[in-house]
Amino acid sequence: MSRKLPNIIVTGTPGVGKTTHCEALAQRTGLRHLSVNQVVKDKGCHEGYDDEYQSWIVDEDKLLDAIEDDAKEGGCIIDWHACDLFPRSWIDLVVVLRVDSETLYDRLAERKYPEKKMQENIDSEIMEVLLQEARESYDEEIVVELTSNTSDEMESNVDRIEAWLRQWKEDNQAS
Ligand code: ADP
């Protein structure tokens, strides 16, 4: 069953700018910002809270059940720091945001992340973990890497994704 609107994943290491991009995109395009973090919390898709990492231990099966109807309908911008769990058939574009490690350090320090979590996230960004995960999980042609160090870069990223959406509609909504 084909969707009338595409589903987009915006992924990357915590602090790269996923939420900021998704909110701007949702406002500009009318697509729905689906914050996985929020769904996990609101719908209890977790097995408890990890105090050391200060994050929820996600139950992926529950999460997929919780978002399946939205994803099948289309028009979701999925905001999450992982992407390999979503079925390939749900997804039309995967945006991997990237940031310099100094910038990421500053953003995570501002969030007062525990030292261990901060270091692991910076290492993960340097090692391109999310980019690799995206490339291994989806067709190469739907994975796009965009930098998110400055607000100008964010503006141009949002423009680019908006242009991609216009094209997708032209290609998929023709009667
Ligand atoms: P994520 O959702 O990936 O964890 P956020 O969107 O919450 O990241 O962004 C983390 C912080 O970095 C926020 O304070 C946000 O304002 C800032 N930020 C995000 N992207 C950019 C950017 N491209 N330029 C400047 N600041 C940014």
Core attributes:
Rossmann fold; two-stranded antiparallel sheet; binds adenosine-5'-diphosphate; cytoplasm; Adenyl_kinase_AK6; kinase; rRNA processing; ATP-binding
Walk me through this protein's architecture.
The protein is an alpha/beta fold. It has one domain: Rossmann fold. Helix content is 49%, strand content 18%. The chain is built from 7 helices and 7 strands; from the N terminus they run βαβαββαββαααβα. It has helices spanning 18-29, 36-42, 60-73, 101-110, 115-126, 129-137, 151-172, and strands at residues 8-11, 32-35, 46-50, 55-58, 76-79, 93-98, 143-147. Strands 2-5-1-6-7 form a 5-stranded parallel sheet, with helices on both faces. It has a two-stranded antiparallel ribbon with strand order 3-4. β3 (46-50) and β4 (55-58) form a beta hairpin. α1 packs across α7 and α4 runs antiparallel to α5. It is globular and about 50 Å long. The relative contact order is 0.21. The structure holds adenosine-5'-diphosphate. The site of adenosine-5'-diphosphate (ADP) has 14 residues, from α1 and α7.
The CATH H-level homologous superfamily? P-loop containing nucleotide triphosphate hydrolases
**Sheet/helix structural class:** alpha/beta
Named CATH topology: Rossmann fold
Main sheet?
Answer: 5 strands, parallel
What is the top-level CATH class? Alpha Beta
